[in-house]
Amino acid sequence: MLLDKKTTIEEAIGRIKDGDSVMLGGFGVPGTPFCLIQELVRQGQKDLTVIKNDANEKGMGVDWLLENGQVRKLITSHIGLNARAVELKNNGSVEIEFVAQGILAERVRAAGAGLMGFVSDIGIDTEFADGKQQVELNGKVGLLEPAINADFALVHAQSADSFGNLRFSGTAMNFNPLMAMAADTVIVETESYVALGDIQPEDIHCPGPFTDAIVELSDLPEVYGVVQR
Amino acid sequence: MLLDKKTTIEEAIGRIKDGDSVMLGGFGVPGTPFCLIQELVRQGQKDLTVIKNDANEKGMGVDWLLENGQVRKLITSHIGLNARAVELKNNGSVEIEFVAQGILAERVRAAGAGLMGFVSDIGIDTEFADGKQQVELNGKVGLLEPAINADFALVHAQSADSFGNLRFSGTAMNFNPLMAMAADTVIVETESYVALGDIQPEDIHCPGPFTDAIVELSDLPEVYGVVQR
Amino acid sequence: MSFNARDRMIARAARDIQPGMTVNLGIGLPTKVVNFIPKDFPVCFHSENGISGVGPVLSNDDADRNLIDAGGAYVSPLPGTAYFDSATSFAMVRSGRLSLTLLGAFQVAANGDLANWKIPGVFAPGIGGAVELAQKARKVAVLTTHCDKKGRSKIVETCSLPLTAKSCVDRIYTDMAVIDVSDNGLVLREVAEGLTVSDVVAATDAKLNVPAGTCPTF
Amino acid sequence: MSFNARDRMIARAARDIQPGMTVNLGIGLPTKVVNFIPKDFPVCFHSENGISGVGPVLSNDDADRNLIDAGGAYVSPLPGTAYFDSATSFAMVRSGRLSLTLLGAFQVAANGDLANWKIPGVFAPGIGGAVELAQKARKVAVLTTHCDKKGRSKIVETCSLPLTAKSCVDRIYTDMAVIDVSDNGLVLREVAEGLTVSDVVAATDAKLNVPAGTCPTF
Description:
Chain A is an alpha/beta fold.
């Protein structure tokens, strides 16, 4: 038999403390764990280091945390769609660390794979290499990219069972399974809570041993829908 | 529309030249591309560097290549079930490079991810660290593990479509998708050749852009079956 | 730039896409290239948020809320489309599986240096996936207006803006010309219909090598 | 070693598996532990060839040819079993997702050093996955006969064989005793039914600390 990890959203998010580092899945809207973020805003933990591909758009997701002053530092690849994030960066009230998107994904995965880091030639000979340790390997110089781990990952899954086996929909996969690998405690919100065995063993995108707490969403707020531009 | 990569086993294996490096999927029997290996034995390319988790058992898979004298070097995690491999190692006629299993998987994946290598503390302070370059990262010493790429990967898939989207069955996945990422040319044998779109986009274990040639197996030789011990 | 000139440059870039290619189209103009590819042409479009086999853009009414491209457009699957995580997506990029990427540009230099992500003090939203596309696609082409909004040439001797990647660009498509980056500098290959070689040379900050004979138009 | 002694040591190791653990059972004796776990006990067995939620071993007649564990036994899925590739499997190991691994041993030293993969000149088939299991499982226990076939203690002051990993073992289960590795050396926790503390001390090459009072039996 496999452990039952189902819990309430309050209990799960209540495990996060002031000063913790929190990874958030999602690339734009798809895969962003809006309900978990909402609960994090409600509980109000401060001084968070947030790791997310992008800063969402104004009025959604990461932006709620920024608006509520809960973020000390944001590690991200792109904030161009969020004017508040740009402003907070410019006035110095939130520290922003930019990481090239694929390097961010890989540094998160490296933590999830229990590695210390990896060596790549991405960004070499440009300002992306500034401050990075160089390593010579087979006569070629590369940059040392340290793994990025976190205290928590908040993950959005299409479906999940009680053991925390996960499945994602479309491009809502993105950073979710990587962050589930990388964080010490992995909290999952799911649109569809299914029975053990309902997801075939070959169809599981993220195996249960990576996850810790499963929260079933009742109905999906509008923010998960198609963005009307 | 997506490119049709279906071809014959003769044409596909005919791309391999003497001296090439060839990755073979599989962990024990499951996932080993026996038919592709058989054709490689028939064509007789020499001086191959073979990368495979294990040396199979005597009388199957890698052992055919060893018996036929086609292997110059074998990079592997374990050869304990193949007495011929042990003998060839001991008499020096085949060079064997042992790599810890997870490090082998990760070094193959690193090549598939276009990385130069990674840093890990696995094997530190033991003889596994002998000859490995050390790297200091955040005050901790790790070992630099170079990516392992190859000219070819031979992969066994449960199902494949004409674009080379792949799906694996059970534990026959193992090294197959990693090697498909890592090799310059990826040759796939499949038990079930399916129409484009028959595998749902979320159910694809290895996306088509990684693969190059798809070979449909007619019927499966006995060697793929349950091993009678 | 007239609507026709814009369409012509996009169509011209589309014509260089070869059968069997895997192609990543950057956000903005490059995305439009897909409209000029015949339906039965064998090409695989990749989007770095985790799709191979990107299908046509859908209206909001037809959209799947979970299916966007890297630019945020709602796209559709094709028979043979695959979805995957962001690490796998960039594994595909860095391991050289992209035959071609078409990118926008602020500046392209005579040696193929590309600047397309940052204007210090003005615009610095982060690099996104551009550096890896520019550095690792087997062919990198730029699709851009020849001049910026102030009329300054985007094709320059040396980039003044921070680079995305060094010496990465192979070919440049603009509303005025098709230009190759060669070991000996920029080579003018084609001029837009209605323009002369002199028009292009005059509008270009960088030195253009002009082969002898008539320059083809597009 | 009598059949009962063997079963008792395996059952004893099984009793230390806590609800909710993810456990990797090494090839050989450790694999047998699964037979002593109640069916409704919440534990997830991991096999490094790419399974979480390993179910019971099947006979050849019932076997799925594509479903083996890392030792080559034909196993079965449970509700909630997942399959994954070898990189993901060892990602799980190295990132600390294994609560416990039970491994075989040639030698265990007083400081927890483990040697279980190589006998120079005699046996060197490659390390397989053992080094990563030994180094990264949150708890590492050894399940082994107390002595080798020649009657020599496997529990030694210092390993003479090449190490799998340094100072990794937390607890040792043998047919004679349960022994903990502490900062102050080995501590005898339990002796097998029918044996005395002196029997165990006499059969053990390494120094054993014996707490005061009666030593529990198992």
